[in-house]
Amino acid sequence: DPSDITALEAERGKLELLHGDARAALEAFDRAASHASNSPERVAAELGRAAAFRSLNRWDDALAALDRVVDAFPGASELARAFHLRGGVEFARGRVAASQEAHERAYALAKQAGSVELSTQALSGLADAHYGAGRLATAVATWKECVEIARRERLVAVEAARIRDHMARGDAHMDEIIHAGAMRQRRGVERGVLRRHLVDIDE
Fold first, then answer.
1. How many helices (DSSP H) and strands (DSSP E) are in the chain?
2. What would the pLDDT profile of 44-56 be if each residue is shown by its tens digit?
3. What residues contact 165, with CB distance under 8 A and at least 6 apart?
4. The model scores a pTM over 0.85
5. Is 9:28 a contact under the CB 8 Å cutoff?
6. SS3 for 106?
């Protein structure tokens, strides 16, 4: 059944991304796309391809995949994911204003979809965009809101990803974000958050 193959390859792609193998993930999502027999399956495959392209720094390919998602007129949840990914790509390209706009759209769509997880992801991206624009205090406030919501809703993956992404990139503002407590995962693993070192310079 083509639908079963599509679903299996899409899940394989997600697992490969989690394990940090973007090339293998892209191959899996390509196979998912080739077997997709309806619009939701194609949208899911393109979202996966966009995520893999982003990890490979293939920005134009990522944006093209996201354009295909938007052109398919999917639901609010899928659009929220698409604009969140677009915001990440634009930020990596140094286009901070475009990144902020994409994450704002992602946040609005996530609220429309009623998804707390997607909302926190969009807030995380907005925090980066605010930092990139020099709005440090706003960035911190947005970041704290994201983490507090994730903690309250027990979205451990969102909390961990927020810290992991910054640590992996080695962003300079790691040293500027105020201490936000410790990230406690259900298995009892605690990871330090960020050092206290920020002056409120928002205009």
1. 9, 2
2. 999 999 999 999 9
3. none
4. no
5. yes
6. helix
